Structure formats: C-alpha cells, structure tokens
C-alpha cells in the first residue's frame, strides 16, 4: 500500500510541475509583449505609438512656402481643427502661422461630436512671413488624432528645425 501511495505522489508531483511550467510559459507569452495580447488579454486592441500612427515630414517648397506632408495609419485619423503651426523665436516667443488645409471628411466623434478629420494623409501648406524668409526657422507643429478602435491621443507638439 505504501508503494502505491508513493507512486501516486510521484505521478501527481510530475503533473503539478508540468502544469506549473505550462502556466508560466503561457503567462510569459501573455505578459512579455509591449501590447496586451495572448491568452488572457486577447480582446484588447493593440494601438500604435503616436509617432507611428501619425507620421510627417516637412519640405521647403520655396523661399516663402513650407509644406508638412502627413501619412495617417489605417484605422486612425487626425482632427482638422486641432492643427496649429507657429514659428518659435530664439527667445521662445511664438508667431502663429495660417495653414492652407484641404477639406477633410465628416465624422461623428465620441469625444468631440461632429468634426472634420483626415484619414490616410494630407498636406498642410504654410506661407512664411517676409521677415522669416531665408533664415533658419523653428516650426512648432500641434496636432491631435485618434484610433478608430477608441483611443484618443492627447494633443501633440513637435518642434522642427528648418534650414533654407
């Protein structure tokens, strides 16, 4: 009888270890990634970093014109009314610039109501004031966007150095 009990204990002990190792492997797979996924969090969507969702580059088109070319990731959008562009002086003072923006798409947003948004991409065109032409510039870009799956990013501010 003792021998039978000892075998049962050995058999169960091996199963306990196998089960524990399997659970540890599953937990490591579920918690080892930056975005929740796997066995326990499969219903949560994975969101892009803001700089991946909304990419841009600038171009100095002429002595008085700068363009900002935006690429918006699929299932993400930028708010038209959240854009602002400013020149930043060496002393930190800012001067607002007016941007020529293309028309956007109408969208009902859970955060801001009925708004105009940009999917896929757009180009923002800026005209430089006469006294800023031909010199090094610091352009401050402000924008905000969301993921269609329900994440709204906080307003973003970027500073871009532009050399003619």
Main features:
164 residues, alpha+beta, Immunoglobulin-like, elongated, disordered N terminus
Please give a structural write-up:
The chain has helices at residues 2-31, 50-53, and strands at 54-62, 65-72, 76-79, 84-88, 94-97, 99-100, 105-109, 113-118, 121-127, 137-143, 145-147, 156-162. The protein has 164 residues and is of the alpha+beta class. It folds into two domains: 1-46, no CATH class; 50-162, Thiol:disulfide interchange protein DsbD, N-terminal domain (Immunoglobulin-like, Sandwich), CATH 2.60.40. Helix content is 21%, strand content 41%. The strands form three sheets. Strands 1-2-9-6 form a four-stranded antiparallel β-sheet. Strands 7-8-3-11 form a four-stranded antiparallel β-sheet, with no helix packed on it. The protein contains two helices and twelve strands, in the order H-H-E-E-E-E-E-E-E-E-E-E-E-E. Strand 7 and strand 8 (113-118) form a beta hairpin. The radius of gyration is 27 Å and the shape is elongated. The chain starts with a helix and ends with a strand.
What is the strand arrangement across the widest sheet?
Answer: 1-2-9-6
Ranges where pLDDT stays below 50 over 5 or more residues in a row are: 1-11, 21-38
Helix content: 10-25%
Instruction: Compute the average pLDDT.
Output: 81
Number of helices: 2
SSE succession = HHEEEEEEEEEEEE
CATH classification, class level of the largest domain: Mainly Beta
Helix/strand/pairing class, anyone?
A: alpha+beta
Shape: elongated
- Largest sheet, if any? 4 strands, antiparallel
Strand segment count = 12
CATH topology of the largest domain: Immunoglobulin-like
Strand content: 35-45%
């Amino acid at each position: 009888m003792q021998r039978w009990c000892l075998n049962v204990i050995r058999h169960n002990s091996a199963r306990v270890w196998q089960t524990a190792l399997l659970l540890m492997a599953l937990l490591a797979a579920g918690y080892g990634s930056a975005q929740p996924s796997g066995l326990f969090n499969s219903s949560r969507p994975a969101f892009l970093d803001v700089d991946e969702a909304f990419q841009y580059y600038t171009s100095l088109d002429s002595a008085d014109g700068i363009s900002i070319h935006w690429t918006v990731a699929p299932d993400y959008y930028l708010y038209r009314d959240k854009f602002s562009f400013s020149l930043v002086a060496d002393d930190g003072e800012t001067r607002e610039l007016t941007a020529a923006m293309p028309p956007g798409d109408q969208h009902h947003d859970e955060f801001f109501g009925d708004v105009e948004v940009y999917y896929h991409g757009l180009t923002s065109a800026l005209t430089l004031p006469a006294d800023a032409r031909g010199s090094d510039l610091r352009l401050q870009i402000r924008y905000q966007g969301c993921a269609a799956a329900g994440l709204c990013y906080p307003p973003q501010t970027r500073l871009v150095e532009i050399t003619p």
